[in-house]
């Protein structure tokens, strides 16, 4: 697909036009667009623009919510396509992934979960606003090889450290690798809290999880 197509996707998010975004996504899929490209080159550019304008006080929360809803509707169609593209492979490992307590941002975490699944991993997505105990329980229940934690907010970053401390107490940290991600997460922060890796986008998360489990 050409740049004009991705620009239209971004613009539909900026304008808060769900019908247009969904129509464009379906048209694109019909013409063989790569769903990850549609998210990263199109929809994500739109939501980042709205986010920057929100940060600068140029747009307000209702517009941000509307744009996020468009993004969510369009990505959920693309997520299904991404997941189904990897459904026939044998599992390379079990992951648990969630957004930490205090944070309801869902979109990036869900994209990462879908792309990991499409690349051969079993992924248990435990959602948003997940407390320390929620992560620990799910890691145990799913016999996870890797725990993934996401946050886009500064304040809930500390929860990631609390989860790792709790995993150590429960004797889980030696058996289960931890990857963290989201825009405020840096390599320095990951090192500081004892995470095994940081993912900067979905493709990077796949690369890092592969390394952690010895697949690459
Ligand atoms: Co919010 N928000 N938001 N928001 N929001 C940000 C994060 C913000 C930077 C906007 C801004 O001010 N410029 C700002 C955070 C400031 C800060 O703490 N430093 C912010 C704020 C302040 C807030 C509220 C507090 C606003 C308010 O109520 N006053 C509130 C938070 C409420 C809460 O959580 N308690 C809030 C609410 C919302 C909406 C509900 C409106 C909506 C979320 C809808 C939803 O998710 N269902 C929303 C949105 C959409 C955004 C922005 C604009 C876009 C986020 C997004 O979806 N990006 C965001 C601006 C920004 O990020 N610069 C913003 C697209 C997505 C594909 O990318 O999520 O980054 P991303 O994920 C990437 C990578 O980060 C990485 O891979 C993903 C795919 O490439 N990644 C991982 C993410 N997790 C990973 C995990 C991994 C590996 C990689 O391994 C486990």
Give a brief outline of the structure.
With 216 residues, the chain is of the alpha/beta class. The chain has helices at residues 3-15, 18-30, 35-55, 61-84, 107-118, 132-141, 157-169, 187-193, 202-212, and strands at 94-99, 122-125, 146-150, 177-181, 197-199. Bound molecules: CO-5-methoxybenzimidazolylcobamide.
Explain the layout of strands and helices.
Layout: H1 3-15, H2 18-30, H3 35-55, H4 61-84, E1 94-99, H5 107-118, E2 122-125, H6 132-141, E3 146-150, H7 157-169, E4 177-181, H8 187-193, E5 197-199, H9 202-212
Parallel strand pairs: 1-2, 1-3, 3-4, 4-5
Helix pairs in contact: 1-2, 1-3, 1-4, 2-4, 3-4, 4-5, 5-9, 6-7
The structure holds CO-5-methoxybenzimidazolylcobamide.
CO-5-methoxybenzimidazolylcobamide (B1M) binds next to helix 3, helix 4, helix 5, strand 3 and strand 4.
């Amino acid at each position: 697909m050409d740049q004009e197509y991705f620009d239209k996707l971004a613009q539909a998010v900026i304008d808060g036009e769900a019908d247009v975004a969904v129509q464009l996504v379906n048209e694109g899929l019909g013409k063989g667009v790569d769903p990850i490209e549609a998210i990263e080159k199109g929809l994500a550019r739109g939501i980042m623009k709205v986010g920057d304008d929100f940060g600068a006080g140029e747009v307000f929360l209702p517009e941000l919510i509307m744009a996020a809803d468009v993004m969510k509707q369009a990505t959920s169609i693309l997520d299904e396509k991404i997941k189904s593209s990897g459904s026939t492979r044998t599992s390379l490992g079990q992951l648990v992934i969630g957004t930490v307590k205090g944070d309801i941002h869902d979109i990036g975490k869900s994209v990462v979960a879908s792309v990991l699944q499409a690349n051969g991993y079993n992924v248990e997505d435990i959602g948003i606003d997940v407390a320390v105990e929620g992560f620990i329980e799910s890691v145990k229940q799913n016999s996870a090889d890797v725990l993934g934690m996401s946050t886009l907010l500064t304040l809930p970053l500390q929860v990631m450290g609390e989860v790792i401390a709790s995993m150590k107490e429960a004797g889980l940290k030696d058996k289960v690798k931890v990857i963290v991600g989201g825009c405020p997460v840096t390599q320095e922060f990951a090192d500081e809290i004892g995470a095994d890796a940081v993912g900067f986008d979905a493709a990077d998360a796949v690369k890092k999880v592969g390394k952690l489990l010895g697949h690459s």
